Amino acid sequence: MRSGKTFALSLSFLFWAFSRFDGADFALCGKTIASLERNLVGPLVRQLERLGFGCRLQRDRHRLTVTFAGRENCFYLFGGRDEGSAALIQGMTLAGCLMDEVVLMPRSFVEQALARCSVSGSKFFFCCNPQHPSHWFYREWIQKRQEKNALYLHFTMEDNPALSPAVRRRYRQLYSGSFYERFVLGRWCAPQGLIYPMFRPQQHVTRWVPEDAQWYLSCDYGILNPMSIGLWAGRDGTWVRVAEYYHDGRATGRQKTDEEYYAALERLANGRPIQAVVVDPSAASFIACIRRHGRYRVLPAQNEVAAGIRAVAELLAQGRLFFSPDCRDSIREFSLYRWKDSPGGEIPLKEHDHAMDDIRYFVMTVARRSAAAGGFCAAAPVRQLP
């Protein structure tokens, strides 16, 4: 924050573009076109004009035309607001792309924009403040920067010569916690207010599977929202999430049918003797689909949120709930699932919560009862109306 990174990167992008190309098209991308014009294009145009560049911004066409020393290049403005934004840039041929605050944009938009850069010698420029360490951009670009031949530059307020020591000192005194870690120090760290701070990968992630286990499936249903299904093995009141299925219809741009989800559920079960499938009680169509196939018994999940969170926390603290390293989406959501303040007190933030809901359904409906019974678990059949 206040490090000057956006100004430095945008000016570098323009200099690079004019050193390599003439008559080419480029993309300047932000969360919205309004924020892009305010934060990047306005300061950039003013500086370019001071340096002798000619600039013509056509707001109705979202295009900035820049000329210098007999060369002319066009820079098109795009907003990566949501999943539908990817369609706006589709079909273009670009010589380069700059993305400001890339972590705020949908992955589908970013990848579509990069796919447009097919001109020989094209490059990508990214700018962002850090987010959580499980963010896809951190995992795919920051951590894999050598593999992707990317130059990574870490800016802080110390790099901005326009900030006085007094202003920098004020910023350091104003903030604390994860906001300070991210926006002042520039570190990719988990947010404060985690709902399950007792979850520790080094303690709760294991390849161990109990012998003579009982097997269950649990499910949080989603169409555009993610669909999360977990495979559980348990004995003596201890449970391991052995494998999982996770499909995000909004991120992938593909909705799946109940039959496709049922096929995924069967593949996850892989012929194991499943005692029952614990399902999101609001997923009436998927419950009907499972029952129609007649292979698995359905248990509509108990859905008390506060009690369920307490039950999951207790089993984690007691060392009775474990996860395979293959359950990457569950492990990712544990690091992101957090509280938010509301007039009625703290409530779970409705983000990164689909595997969390799936786990909570299973714990409330099956696992806590088996733990209370000293390892014995029995599930009564669910009566179906004719």
What does this protein look like?
The relative contact order is 0.10. This protein is of the alpha/beta class. It contains 14 helices and 14 strands. Strands 2-3-4-1-5-6 form a six-stranded mixed sheet, with helices on both faces. It has helices at 5-20, 33-50, 86-89, 107-115, 136-142, 165-174, 177-184, 201-204, 249-252, 258-269, 284-293, 305-318, 328-334, 354-372; strands spanning 25-30, 54-58, 63-68, 71-79, 96-100, 123-127, 214-220, 227-235, 238-247, 274-279, 298-300, 321-323, 339-342, 345-348. Helix 10 (258-269) crosses helix 11. The model is unreliable at 376-386 (pLDDT under 50).
Question: Secondary-structure map with pairings?
Answer:
Blueprint: H1 5-20, E1 25-30, H2 33-50, E2 54-58, E3 63-68, E4 71-79, H3 86-89, E5 96-100, H4 107-115, E6 123-127, H5 136-142, H6 165-174, H7 177-184, H8 201-204, E7 214-220, E8 227-235, E9 238-247, H9 249-252, H10 258-269, E10 274-279, H11 284-293, E11 298-300, H12 305-318, E12 321-323, H13 328-334, E13 339-342, E14 345-348, H14 354-372
Parallel strand pairs: 1-4, 1-5, 5-6, 7-10, 9-12, 10-11
Antiparallel strand pairs: 2-3, 3-4, 7-8, 8-9, 13-14
Helix pairs in contact: 1-2, 10-11, 12-14, 13-14
- Strand-pairing-aware structural class: alpha/beta
Beta strands, count: 14
The amount of beta strand, in percent, is 15-25%
Mean pLDDT over all positions: 89
Residue runs with pLDDT of under 50 for 5 or more positions: 376-386
Largest beta sheet, briefly? 6 strands, mixed
Task: Please trace the helix and strand order, writing H or E for each element.
Answer: HEHEEEHEHEHHHHEEEHHEHEHEHEEH
What spatial order of strands do you see in the largest sheet? Answer: 2-3-4-1-5-6
Q: How far is it from the N-terminal to the C-terminal residue, by CA? A: 62 Å
General shape: elongated
Q: What is the share of helical residues? A: 25-40%
Number of H- or I-type helical stretches: 14
Tell me the Rg in angstroms: 25 Å
